[in-house]
Amino acid sequence: MKKRDFHKFALAAAAMGLADMPLGITRAHGQTRGGTLNSIVQPEPPMLNLAVSQLTPTQMVSGKIFLSLLTYDVNLKPLPSLAKSWTVSPDGLTYTFQLEPNARWHDGKPLTAEDVVYTAREFLPVTHPRARDIFGRCESITAAGAHTVVFKLKAPFGPFLSAFDISNLPVMPKHIYAGTDLAKNPANLNPIGSGPHKLKEWVRGSHIHLVRNDDYFKPGLPHLDAIIYRVMPDGASRALAIEKSTVQLTQWTDLELFDAQRIAKQSNLAMTTKGYEYFAPIMWLEMNNRTAPMNDKRFRQAVMHAIDRNFIKDRILYGFGKVATGPINSKTKFYEADVKKYDFNVAKATALLDEMGLKPDAKGIRARLRFPVSPYGEMVQRSCEYIRQCLSKIGVAVTLESTDPGSYTQRISQWDYDLNLSWLYQFGDPALGVTRNYVTSNIRKILFTNTVGYSNAEVDRLADAAATETEDAKRQVLYSQMQKQLVEDVPIAWLVEMEFPTIHDKRIQNLVTTAIGIHESFDTVSFKA
To answer: In terms of pTM, does the model score above 0.85?
Structure first.
């Protein structure tokens, strides 16, 4: 680095509160293993408990602190985590998990089957956007001994074994949470997990510092001494940090996509888009179906025609993705391509609004809508601005409203919006990650549920029938019918099947090894000598 650049970077580091933090690959004092992995978290999470907050930054950091029963390989095959083994009864109704006997919480107390039962039966149904639908299908969830958990279903549920990743069932310590206000428990900010890393400190606006859990149940793991997630609100600073090796890892929307391809060409860096298979997110525009004019499907169809989705893919996402055709990602099981198509056609959009009787006023405005913008970087801001411009051409005036992570979560979960740009995980099966956004029973004031308020009895029937069917061929028929109905109704404007670049120092080993990628525990991540 040139002297001039060094001084510029030093000033930037000081401004970001990094001057006293280890930069680059470092060794913890007195340790001979691992070293310190520096990464970015953007934006800063509101809390560190993904059982309460499902925002991506929370999930990413919490995935190192908490564990679930299973994880999944790139082909979505289940792998052990807290559960060392499991069996499924011949009738597909009873799932029995044997837990690791040496797993302990970070405060030293043993992790037992009672913690798993409490989490699935009492904790998650209150706070989690999918748990009620998943674990509500159980007739019973019981502890058959200190380290044996039995889930007994009321009826077969095809994807049940796919529902035990860290985001669907983060196991919580019963002795910390039972009888408390789950959303306000202090442990949400100072978590006590069972994973390979534990919280050392969280300095708001600066960094989250995790250190090795020396009581981890896997012998010899984790390899890393520490993981430091740096809070860097400025996109240029994040790009500079990976370029100058201040951090060795970026993921999701840490980098603006126009920077990703350029930065990845550096000789010391590598880029992959793998590790997002389980999530397979679709960028979409939520429309609050409760309020006019969005309660008329013709308006929602007009929005689909008014937006050039190829422009978003090519000019805003810089080719990281594919134009979406409906609610199921083409990488997810049971995708149906033969659905109604919405081409970019302003004339068609205008005709639909005229058919509704939604006439322009003296200023040419047919409707005024509020659009809270989530704080996830310039890509989100540009996408929202482009959508605003598109809708202005059909007489829809959109007001973009700035938010922080907390206020954004509050507004969307309380249905206080007209439009919302988001992308939700599909979790490998429509019954886990897709239908939650459309079934009437999941209209809830919890983020990442059916917050748009869409309700269609036929969609409800098809979703339930497909979830309880065990034969894939029959599930495909049901999900194909469901997709056709949803694409006709357009409760949400599906935009782009997203891809994300994970850029990392080439010395990092075992970084992306499963379908949940950088949300993994990182217990086997290490640096080459």
So the answer is: no
Per DSSP, the three-state class of 68 is coil
For residue 17, CA distances in Å to 40, 165, 259, 330 come to: 13, 34, 23, 42
Alpha carbon distances (Å) from 236 to 384, 450, 501 = 20, 35, 17
CA-to-CA separations, 277 to 154, 219, 467, in angstroms, rounded: 29, 29, 20
> How many other CB atoms are found less than 10 A from the CB of residue 369?
19
Task: Report d(CA 153, CA 161) in Å as an integer.
Answer: 12
Give 10-residue mean pLDDT values along the chain (529 residues): 41 42 44 80 94 93 98 92 97 97 98 98 93 93 98 94 94 98 96 98 98 97 97 94 97 89 94 92 97 98 98 95 97 95 98 97 97 90 97 98 92 97 91 95 92 98 93 96 98 96 96 95 94
Whole-number average pLDDT of the chain: 92
Cα angle: 52, vertex 56, 247; to 5 degrees: 125
Nearest to 480 by CA among 334, 342, 341, 340: 334
In eight-state DSSP terms, residue 506 is T
Distance CA 439, CA 449 (A): 9
| CA–CA separation, 84 and 81 (whole Å) | 6
Q: What is the largest CA-CA distance in the chain?
A: 74
Residue 80, H or E segment: strand 78-80
The sign of the torsion formed by the CA atoms of 310, 313, 315, 316 equals positive
* Whole-number Å distance between alpha carbons of 340 and 325: 8
C-alpha to C-alpha distance for 38 and 486, rounded to whole angstroms: 43
Rounded distance between C-alpha atoms, residue 412 and residue 453, angstroms: 12
Q: 460-483 pLDDT, tens per residue?
A: 999 999 999 989 999 999 999 999
Burial class (CB in 10 A: 0-12, 13-18, 19+), 5: exposed
